[in-house]
């Protein structure tokens, strides 16, 4: 095993491989236990395996740490990680904690933690990377940094003092919303809400869209009305409508009054449709163009960074006006077809007709149409053939999957076939 010092902040997200080089997962945290004397001892890693499931890998099953990767013996118990009393997660809990220097020379906060294998063959915390408070009130100084041995500092947890979530957010800044949602739900609730409080509104909106409704409601209740409205403004209208529909009517109406008028209008419109209809599933912001628009213009619209891939799969061609509800829907043009024609070609000559559903079409029928015609999105029209939105395949999947498909229990059921019959049930034995 490598004896080089490893900083946990750099270890986060590194690939975990078996002896033949196949990827097992990614490191999401390092677990330590405190001792009466000496530095905390490393007992294992939290590893995210396919399916966004986090499992515990004992340090005894790690054969190498270094060079941006971790090598295991290849034996992984896929039972979901559950933190025990006495265990501390370095990234989720230790980084950001305030400390005092034992010699009285000042204070600071833990910005990173180095782990190292000692002569006895045990991995332990070898050094802390400490950031000192910035001198004076200058906004241009972040304060000095220094290294310290574990014995040189003492962690300080004042009554009522929440741990800083800033470092945790920075560590997980590259996570996709679905992965960050799972990471937050794995944290103790107090720590999770502290991190939620520091997330930007748009980032939190993306994360909430990836959570089960019960988890969304817990977080929304902790935000307060004004922040909740700001986050709902940043959510996709169909997701915001689904969330508001779970609230008591008076509370939902109050949040709608606090939202931006345009965003609230879209949500109110979606709430008028049944949740299991095309109208209830759709997004009210499709890409709309005129028949005179060119291929170059269509491709420019679908290149927008904020567009989800399914929404960018096709553009809708309508008569004016071009804001929903639009004029009559003429058809759609798939992006693959646009790629086959010169930039000056008019989109009106490339449309596919007859690929739309009514607002009252059932979710089951929408899914059948998507599957029958190999579509990832389908336009939704009202009784007068005015375009009012688009249903994407992910909207349908969210509706068709079990309500608890994002939960730990559902994930365990999906992966239960991966656990050998004689696999030990204790999470620390692999």
TrEMBL record:
Single annotated GO MF: magnesium ion transmembrane transporter activity
| Keyword Glycoprotein assigned | no
Q: Which SUPFAM superfamilies does this entry report, sorted A to Z?
A: CBS-domain pair, MgtE N-terminal domain-like
The record's annotation in InterPro entries points to: CBS_dom, CBS_dom_sf, Mg_transptr_MgtE_intracell_dom, MgtE_N_sf, MgtE_transporter, SH3_actinomycetes
Chain ranges passing through the membrane: none
Say yes or no: keyword Hydrolase present: no
Q: Which Pfam families match?
A: CBS, MgtE_N, SH3_actinomycetes
Tell me where in this chain the CBS domain is found. Answer: 350-407
Entry's SMART domains?
A: CBS (SM00116), MgtE_N (SM00924)
Q: Which domain of life is it from?
A: Bacteria
| Region annotation (Disordered) ranges | 408-430
Keywords from UniProt, A to Z, are: CBS domain, Cell projection, Cilium, Flagellum
- Write down any Gene Ontology CC term: membrane
The protein's name: CBS domain-containing protein/flagellar motility protein MotE (MotC chaperone)/sporulation protein YlmC with PRC-barrel domain
Q: Which organism is it from?
A: Lysinibacter cavernae
Highest lineage ranks of the organism?
A: Bacteria, Bacillati, Actinomycetota, Actinomycetes, Micrococcales
